[in-house]
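Components:
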Amino acid sequence: MADLDPMKFFALWMFTHEQADDLMVQSVERGKAVAGEGMSGGPDAFTDGFMAMVAEEKARLKAQIASGHGDEIAEQGDEHIDELKFEVAELRGRLDQMQTTLDAIAAHVGAKGA
Amino acid sequence: MSARSGRITRALAGAAVRGVFRSRLGFVPAPRRRAVFAAEWRRAFEELGGAFLKLGQMISVRPDEFGDELAGEMERLRDQVAPVPFSRLRPVIEESLGGPVSSLYASIDETPLASASVAQVHAAVLAASYRPVWGQELPAGAEVVVKVIRPGAADALRGDIVEARRLAGSALMRVLLRGVDLDSLLDEFARSVERELDLRIEGRVADRFAFDFRPDPKIVVPRIVWTRTAPRVLTMERMYGWRLSELDEAELAGVDAHGLAVHGATAFMRQVMLYGRYHADLHPSNLFVTPDNRIAYLDFGIVGHLTDAERGDIAQVLAGFVYRDADRALRYSANLGVVVPPEKIDTVRRELGELLDKTMGGGSTDFRHFGFGFLGLLRRNGIAIPGGYGLLVKSLATVEGVARRLYPDIDIMEVARPFVTRMIGDSIGRPETLQERLPAVWRAAMRELLA
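Structure:
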């Protein structure tokens, strides 16, 4: 095999990226057009719609980075704590209800005994 | 034969005879014939009341099993019956909660707010503060509603189910309802009635919904007072607002109808595709629009449940509908139990494509016609439809109807489009998805490069 020409390698690398970038931009444009018109058809429409949303996400991410906010991991942690809090609270609700039932049974038995 | 049994037989036989007569011995076109019979069944169910009202409600959410006409007609059933005097409910409350009503609540209004076949609802005021499972504390003096199972309702419902089973075995019913699996339907119905007779189940579902919607200030779910709740009594926060059927009044009060319609539809998608629990009985009287522009969910009698895998498949099926991709819709419907035999794939794909073009194309969509058309298409081709699938299609169609009551021009599929796209996009990042899909991605890329 002939030695790989570095210039050619980087040119190919650059060409591939340029092509991919162009295709991505076209897909985003088509996806945005679909959003405006309402409906399109077929499997490619989904890919374009998805790419348009990825572009929106990228814009949001850029804005987030520019504003210096990026603490989503902390939010995820809060979610797990919320789940745990709910489970405990639900258990408390069940106990409250069981206590009510017990009180009702006790009242019933008391009334019978009297 | 008991008096009730005779009444049931007469009402149902009468409906059948009138149906035959009004459809000119069945010689009118099939859709007209089905509509005539559906109206007769609905009238008979209304006349019979009791379990038949509940059965009608269940039929109304199962267009997959009973067809569009009957399900649509049963939507019109009104479960409103004459109230029982409060003196008959008082012992139920006192027996269930273990004390005199005067010590359980600061006050209770003896005139009911609503009266249905199974339960009656009264306004009351809390005597002591209560910390609910989710949300802020309800202070002493907070307004609540007390839902009480009517005395005798449980026995009457169970008796009607026994009667319905007896009638289901008759040759006439087998002929009139051919194609419907009456035995499993009645089994399912009996289970749902037992669930409805235990009001604690509804309370638990309400708590779960309140938790699910905690980040959403636009959705409100009544808080449950568990110290005043038992199988036959449910005490919950009172909601004020307008039922969707009273929307004109709400609009006059300056409610953001468009914002609420979009939000309500998105909230339903979240229930289905994120939480895996959804309110499957969203008729207009189960939804309130509050004066502060929020949506209040009420009555959690029928709730659909979905597994993680089902949620992913539903997102894919919806993406197929939204992007008019018949192959995607059918491929993932198969995972949900809608299996199209190989010899029928081409026919079903073609008919589905035509239906998508007719109902979901051209800038405006009509999910109700599409959804029911799709179920009809599957039925015509002899393809079994799982109950959960039918319930979901019906629920989506109902959400569209509810959203359109708020804002007639809403396009439910436009609301679904970003939602399902994101759902599917998010699933790509899961390690198990990557592991499953990457080999195919690599093979496809190499195949294209080397072609």
